[in-house]
Design a protein that fits this description.
433 residues; alpha/beta; Rossmann fold; UDP-N-acetylmuramoyl-L-alanine:D-glutamate ligase; Protein-Tyrosine Phosphatase, Chain A; ten-stranded mixed β-sheet; six-stranded mixed β-sheet; 13 helices; Mur_ligase_cen; UDP-N-acetylmuramate-L-alanine ligase activity; cell shape; Mur-like_cat_sf
Length: 433
């Protein structure tokens, strides 16, 4: 079978394309944007077209498209003329997961870290999971994908209705905070999708702060069936003491942040309930490392520390800055934040202002639109509410105005702010990144 992916370079699409490639199918794709994932796909022998052209899909049996590719796309129109089926990334992902025992991870914040952490623990327990990750991690042979056997660990993207149709056997819901609410009829519809996602699962694990689903195992900070009692921090690691239905337990987590402690607790809740050996589960966290762009310390020289992070919601930004201030107690924290999506900014700009105010110095670029229209919205909204924050219209200007002085510089956002981080590392360290 020949499968053609539209938007093949996306982190989710590329993982699905790699899966099909190693399942014996002929895979091609189109993506106008160069990226590390596109380069990796080409290194595997997957042909990637750089422009959307009707002839790209001539011999395809199936077209898979990302939501960013519209019905007016020339390849979509050509496929429909020729009677070639066109399905969404979500539909394709659901279809390829059917043969597996499925462990899904969904929620507003923490999906990728929790998925990576769960895959890590299962590997340490001697299991052989197939993994689909929304970032890259060195433990996975192909960065964002690992071909395993009969267990699949994967993220369920909650940004669009339909994620409730994955029908996993086991499910972790990290939290439910109303991001992407504009894609749903209303809050009730949004919440009902999470409820429906849990309906047929064997075990549903839910953050206790979102107590909207009956018959779920609850985890949380100081509350829930599984709860955190105490955290002892040691800069980049933490000793966490928890209460469980099986008594008090403790474990070492090799990454900082209360949010990561909660991510680990959600996994413990699930695996304990699934019957895995408890001491082995707890021991497995001691050498976990975070995925790319999750508190990723990409430079540390001459008292200058650069962190790349994917945080793009107010809660994530607050957790990121709280963790940085706790880890680097004696250092000045500078955040360079690129808001992601105009719809999110319009809804959350006040909360962004509050969260970003935790930093000592704040630079804010214009919004990374992710194919959304501006509708008169600008990141200046955030800056107007924060004393001394600096708005940067064109992100490249940051290279002229960012000081090269000791401190911690956090480049945060889900867009292309990572490109400025790379150039800043070249500037302060003489590196070619």
């Amino acid at each position: 079978m020949k499968i053609h992916f539209l938007g093949i370079g996306g982190i989710g699409m590329s993982a699905q394309a790699i899966h099909e490639h190693f399942s014996g199918n002929v895979v091609t794709g189109t993506d106008p944007y160069s990226s590390e994932r596109v380069n990796y796909l080409e290194s595997l022998g997957i042909q990637v077209f750089k422009s959307h052209l009707p002839e790209n899909i001539d011999s395809a049996d199936l077209i898979v498209r990302t939501p960013a590719v519209s019905e007016d796309n020339v390849e979509v129109k050509k496929a429909k003329e020729k009677g070639i089926p066109v399905i969404s990334r979500l539909e394709h992902h659901i279809s390829i997961l059917r043969p597996y025992t499925k462990i899904g991870v969904t929620g507003t914040d923490g999906k990728t870290t929790t998925t990576a952490m769960l895959a890590h623990v299962l590997l340490k327990l001697g299991k052989d999971p197939t993994v689909f990750l929304g970032s890259t991690h060195p433990m996975l042979e192909h960065g964002n994908y690992r071909k395993g056997s009969n267990i699949a660990v994967f993220e369920m993207d909650e940004s669009q209705p339909g994620f409730e149709n994955y029908n996993p056997d086991y499910l972790i819901i990290t939290n439910i905070r109303g991001d992407h609410i504009e894609n749903f009829k209303n809050l009730q519809h949004y919440n009902s999708c999470f409820e429906n996602a849990c309906k047929n699962v064997k075990i549903c694990v839910l953050n206790v702060e979102n107590n909207i689903i009956n018959n779920s195992i609850k985890f949380g900070l100081n509350d829930g069936d599984y709860k955190i009692n105490k955290i002892e921090n040691n800069k980049f690691s933490q000793k966490i003491t928890i209460n469980t239905p099986y008594g008090e337990k403790s474990f070492i987590l090799n990454v900082p942040g209360i949010h990561n402690a909660l991510n680990a607790l959600s996994i413990i809740s699930l695996l304990f309930e699934m019957g895995y050996e408890k001491d082995l589960v707890l021991k497995a966290f001691s050498d976990f490392s975070l995925p790319k762009r999750r508190f990723d310390i990409s430079f540390n020289e001459n008292d200058i520390i650069i962190i790349d992070d994917y945080s793009h919601t107010p809660v994530e930004i607050k957790s990121l800055l709280s963790t940085a201030k706790n880890v680097f107690k004696d250092k000045k924290i500078t955040i360079i934040f690129q808001p992601h999506r105009y719809s999110r900014l319009k809804r959350e700009w006040k909360h962004f202002s509050e969260a970003l105010s935790l930093a000592d110095k704040i630079y804010i670029t214009e919004v990374y639109g992710a194919f959304e229209s501006k509708n008169g919205i600008s990141a200046r909204l955030i800056v107007e509410k924060i004393n001394d924050a600096i708005f940067v219209q064109e992100k490249e200007e940051l290279l002229q105005i960012l000081p090269s002085e000791p401190g911690v510089y956090i480049f945060a956002g889900a867009g292309d702010i990572i490109e400025i981080s790379k150039k800043f590392k070249e500037k302060v360290g003489g590196l070619k990144v």
